[in-house]
What we know:
Blueprint: E1 14-18, H1 51-63, E2 68-72, H2 82-90, E3 97-102, H3 107-117, E4 121-125, H4 131-137, H5 144-157, E5 163-168, H6 177-187, E6 190-195, H7 213-223, E7 226-228, E8 239-243, E9 249-253, E10 266-269, E11 274-276, E12 285-286, H8 288-292, H9 297-309, H10 315-318, H11 321-324, H12 331-334
Parallel strand pairs: 1-2, 1-10, 2-3, 3-4, 4-5, 5-6, 6-9
Antiparallel strand pairs: 7-8, 8-9, 10-11, 11-12
Amino acid sequence: MTSLIDQFRRPLRDLRISVTDRCNFRCSYCMPADVFHDEFKFLHHDQILRYEEITRLARIAVGLGVVKLRITGGEPLVRRDLDQLIAQLTSISGVEDIAMTTNGFLLEKMAQPLKDAGLARVTISLDSLDNDVFRRMNGDKADVAPVLAGIRAAEQAGLTPIKVNAVVQRGVNDHTMVDLARFCKDNGYVLRFIEFMDVGTRNGWKLDQVVPAKEIIERIDAALPLERVEGNYYGEVAERHRYRDGGGEIGVIASVTQPFCGTCTRLRLSADGRIYTCLFALRGTSLRDPMRAGATDDELATLFAGVWSKRKDRYSEIRTEETAANKKIEMNYIGG
């Protein structure tokens, strides 16, 4: 099947599905505690898509060329019975890969049920092995130990290859990068460092807190020698490097200093049923409302197609101080 093509001839291949805007962490770069406090108003239960609605929209998207599904949040595992959604998505013909991004805190108990339901693999967010640094970054909500237990449970369940994501902020956790790289190398996990991004408008983003991909690689290479390798597929966002001794690889997602808008194949579905064509989008298009009003699959497919075919966003390529200050959608709302 030929995928939809946008205004820059980028095909639609990936659908990232946010199942909730809630999270049990308060990471400073995503949901800072001073904003997302106890009185913060999250989406009401009735506003969030039901699993059957998510599955219906995913099936329509697959019919338009999507082959990869990724479950995100907020933190997806705070939503109950997530394995039921995975089982429903697994039943869609044409899906080649179903993965999930999680902070790992609740993964120890859920890894096996998710695998049994059909989840292929997981990516765990882990910004540092240093417990003090980790707690500082997650809003003092959790220690490292439960996340490591979740990683081990995922590995035992066969949710592999295990990927670990680490957002790097200068002066916050960049001094712990090498230790994290060594840990992942020794355990066979694929580590992805992520440049601190100006997602939304509430995370206090400043350019001087960004550790550029080039510097990240140089600092890891000085301790654990690396060499560049080619990407695995069209649209891969990570710049990949392997260890010269053959002990695995790391990657860097460099949205700020090395934008990859030109090959982006991702569409995002928010927890309340809006589709967004960019992580840095200002607005989305509701599919929930027409769906609940009785729209047919063909009518919903036309909405999908109309949004993607008109797409011309390339935020990271044209980022300026002015555009960075625009009121963009928050990351907990549409996933990373």
